[in-house]
Amino acid sequence: MKKQFLTLLAVALLLCGCTAKEPTDGKKEEDTGLNALSTALDSSYAYDITKRISELGDNPDVGNRSCGSQAEYEAGEIIIDEITKLGLEPVVESFDTDTWSFNKGRIYYTDENGQEQYLVLGGFATNLTFNDEVQVVYVGRGTEADYEGLDVTGKVVLLDIDQANEWWVNHPSYEAYLHGALCALVCNVSGYATYDDDTIGSQDFCGPAYTPAFAVSKNSSKTLQNLMGETGEATVRLDVDSVVSSGTSRNIYTEIKGATDEVIYFFSHYDGYYHTFFDDAQGVGNVLAIAKAIKESGYTPDKTIRFVFHGAEEWGKSDTEYDWSRGAYNMITHMHPEWAENAFAILNIDGMYTVPGHTQFRLACVDELAEFASDSCDKVSERYGLEFFAEAYTSVWTEDFSYIRAGVPSIIANTAYPTEIYDDTAYHSTMDNIALGVDMNAWNAVLDLFADLYCRMDALAVRPMEFTSHFKAMEEVYDGESDLDFAGVYAASQRVDQLVKDMNDAYAKAESAEEKETLRKEAIALNVQLHEMYDFITDNYLALDYDDNTIFPFELNEWNIENLEEAIEALEDGDGAKAYDEYLYGVDYNWYAYEFSKETYAYMLDRTLNKATDTWGEGLIRYPGENLWDVITSVEQKMEQEKANYASEIKTLKAVLKNQLKIQEKIEKNMADLFAETIVKFNEIN
To answer: What does pTM read for this prediction?
Structure first.
């Protein structure tokens, strides 16, 4: 009943008029950026595109338009058709990738009345085609300890998971595989996909396709556990067809030529889990609506505008930690690396989902663009009665990260708050659909925000980059032994920041066409230098931790040293519990050593370190990981003993600490040399 009401509410909002021609509070905005396109922005058009894409699906029960599947192809055809209708030329480019089609997924069982019933399953990017009777067994959280005393060979294991706060699906799925299970059924008991007890949720798999997994709702899990009764097993018929293979996906783009060949990019992706309406069908609708508004408003762009719709964003490569954003990675790495040099900036509309109840919307920006983005946020916040804000936060979760690595700065439509309205409950689930409702005032605001960002950016001569902020953020977290020349980097970067500001100010004040043209030529040359500088910075100052967070290259090592020193001290004091509970898990990937077998842990650590080739994450974990599985297991076994002897564990950890201190020496020498080179490169910019 609730779902039906929300659906009717969304339709009513649509019928009430969903164009962005006027803000809902009736205020007029005299700013050139907003006025240029606002009257032509049409959120009803964006809504229609979004709805049509969200209705596609490979699986008749739950949808899914995954990488290389028929539904993804059909979504691409909608985009191609709309681009053509706008009088633009679609460019379609295929790329080789792993593909996934989730064609069916059900469990059939006999109820208490002897009637056959079925439960609907969600999918993960794994391989299993099966239609036969099988035993299903509940294994708790699917850790190594949960299998004690159980024989699950050839059976289906049902397990609980919280991917937001505990561990990713690949670990319990691999553990199930090692114990001989046919497949794992995964229930999100907390974290993601918890809108209600019927919600089914999936995430990218980050593991091998030969460890099959499927998703179930809480209610389906309860049904299966009730069927097991006192025996602990139930006989069901599993009917699934999930196919991971090799094939192709497509990137689609079009452009509107400007006075220069410099390019401002709009991004979105058209693949998705289930019948996803928001992530990112809404982004596709918004990007097409902006393209339509630019065409219909008569706006004359200074820079070329390129609208790119990536395939294979959600998943596209098997058995790696970095299995998403395949379309974007292929586009900028293999298909069009030449795009990076004259790319002015990226505006990526993959987020800010306009679900009713969201009152705050974040733009996630690279450090260098956060100040620029804040001005547009303030303007649109006042106009629509919502809070938009920009933060310096470089995320790997969206497809622009591959372009960032190539030296292209980006601004991303990111999280909407409060997060429990969508991110924590409906993201990547069966509830990412129109039943959540749509806040059209917020939708109009998002369109206006990106129109304003675009128009302000298009009016500039030079990329509005502020480099000093990057090094200020670095100094705040640096805790090394060496004195890095932050003062020298600040002086050099501030000079470039001022050069950017002065040229943009001069361009804005230029009165004659001749003066503007002269400044534009100078600006284009400067932009090439800024690209080279930013490319150098991302090559040398960007790293990842084991949770896929962007960090500076020295941070992981600093955390390791701190945790190792504290763990050793605790063990020397005979306090194994303190070392175990507070410190050992903080070294590299070792959180996963606590719950899973040595084989599972070793495989997943190797997958992260050595299976990143030809992905956006390649090379970003910069030093070999420390495997503390034996130490952690030993401490766990001893810590309940009185006067336990931790001599062997201390010896091992001291050797690991010695290695980390050697790594620290290398890092700090490299950082000192790097700072000197950075100062030289800044000083060469003119």
So the answer is: 0.93
